[in-house]
Amino acid sequence: MRRRIKSAMLMIIMVCTLCVNSVVAEAESATNSGDRVTILFTHDIHSRLDEYKASQADGETEMIGGLARIKTEIDRVKEEDPAAFVFDAGDFSMGTLYQTIYETDAAELTMLGKIGVEATTFGNHEFDYRAVGLSNMFHSALRNAEEDAELTLPQFLIANIDWKKNKSDDNKLIQTALEDYGSKEYTVIEHDGVQIGVFGVLGEDAAACAPESGLEFDDIVETSKRVVKELQKKDVDMIVCLSHSGTNEDEDKSEDEILAEKVPEIDVIISGHTHTTLEQPIIHGNTVIASAGCYGANLGEMSLVPDGDGRWTLEEYKLKAMDGTVEKDADIEAELAQYRSVIDEEYLSRFGYTMNQVLAENDVAFDSVDDMYAEHREAGLGNLISDSYIYAVKQAEGEDYEPVDLAVVATGVIRDSFPKGEITVSDAFNVSALGIGADRITGYPLVSVYLTGAELKTVAEVDASVSSLMSAAQLYPSGMAWTFNPHRMILNKVTDVYMTTDQVGEEEPLTQEKLENIQDDKLYRVVSGLYSAQMLGAVEGQSKGILKITPKNADGEPITDFEKYIIHDQNGAEVKEWYALASYLESFSENAKGVSVVPERYEKAENRKVINDSRNPIELLKHPNKIALVIYAVILVLILLIVLVVRICYTKIRARKNKKENK
């Protein structure tokens, strides 16, 4: 009897053990199999591999971001869920000094691999160094992988380039580099039995922002429909699109929302390009659109579970802030330190700088770049940058200096701002981080052109009228001042334009006594960055000839190749935009510690751009320019024609009435 009882108890224990094991297995399966999928994501890191200063609401600054923090968080999530997927949606490059070794060291793409990113795609800024720069970057990354057996580079996915349409030598250079790297339109990545089909696209606006690519990109909707069909044939469990297209408050311009609507079979869209921070995702049908902001300030995380109908339901979504609460991974920090040494030696040494060298102390509350885009007005940071251009030309030309009448910078080339505190070389570079010169050295150079006085007035009108339509076109002058009324007719908003006396290096703000009238036929020397100068030169074509600005040389002959008019110092080196700013920051009066201090004058508006908000009819109609006079004339002619037609009709009606009465 006892033996039977013991046998029964043993059987009960065995059954219980099996049940417990089954429950544990089911729990593990729910975490690591097709019952639950975790996706981590980034986009628009823009070479922000290190932590950086960010202004807080209380005016204080905090160090945030950095790949070392992102790696720590990825590791933490993967410790809980080893099957988590990690993706990036492009624009991993261009924005800090790391871009200076983009071609030679491929620091950005290599470090994405180091932190565990499995797949990425093109952003428009990957093309900033043109075809040869992009090709060099891919081959440098491959060389890094050959030298480091532990390095796994991200898969590179781009589906909307048809190489039959892109046949130039530069196109072929990019195609070959992608083939060498092993790039595909799509890939299938499997973790713990879950297969995700992943593909990448670059949208219409992003393509328009990448003229240096020289490529024609296919429509992302039609491309996605084709790729989705191919992935469905492979019986993948989920489809993820890495889209560098973005979302927009205007639904007609919200490319990734349109993509989700037109291609509903996509389960997840990681949406880059517009730097959108979606605290809650956009849901279109069964498609989740996710964005984590920019510069690595957040790591996006989402978890999805099957809905029973072959699709997925979002279970959890969050953006983890990469702030001081997240520790920095020591190995990643060590890797980045090596790259920083390379930057100091290979790039900054030619300018006599190092990355962390302090240029100035700042107590001015400069606008953020977002604020400058959001509001059309004068900004201290814009004034500082345009002043720095004139200062740098003076230093470069020395005794041969020819006075600069106007320096101008556009919002679209201002990439960052200065918080309060120390300003380093790295900070100055980040503000003007775009482009490459004719010397193939990082940084747009300054160029010198000439415009007539009449064209300078048109420059003011471009700022006043075009900025409301395209905020990146807003201009900040040094050497000129204008008043505009936002309520006046478009292309006739400017009411007063003046030249100003040289204010560069002055401690006192601009005053009325320093204004001078403009002579329409006189040639004035204008300095700007290469990209901004080219954009000014394109105004006439873009406006269909309505606005005419033709950059010229000192003899008044039209310029076609702006690179011939790059400003060089006395050693023959190009004067870069960022270097102009850095050297100007160093030039101010010093404090007790011997550090330059940014003048308080940049805290307040100096009436370089005055807004007259009046709706008084006199203010709305006074000082019409030629465009307004033509429009007024057309309106007057139309009114006269209407009056004439009415009079003729009235005369005929009256004649008929009289005729009837006479009968």
Question: What does this molecule look like?
Answer:
The protein has 663 residues and is an alpha/beta fold. The protein folds into three domains: 39-330, Purple Acid Phosphatase, chain A, domain 2; 351-450 and 462-529 and 568-611, 5'-Nucleotidase, C-terminal domain (5'-nucleotidase,  domain 2, Alpha-Beta Complex), CATH 3.90.780; 624-657. The strands form seven sheets. It has a six-stranded mixed sheet with strand order 7-8-9-10-12-11. A four-stranded mixed sheet has the order 4-1-13-14, with helices on one face. Strands 18-23-16-19 form a four-stranded mixed sheet, sandwiched between helices. Strand 9, helix 9 and strand 10 (268-271) form a beta-alpha-beta unit. Helix 2 (67-80) packs parallel to helix 4. The protein is globular, with a radius of gyration of 30 Å. It starts with a helix and ends with a helix. Mean pLDDT is 90; it is low at 1-6 and 8-32.
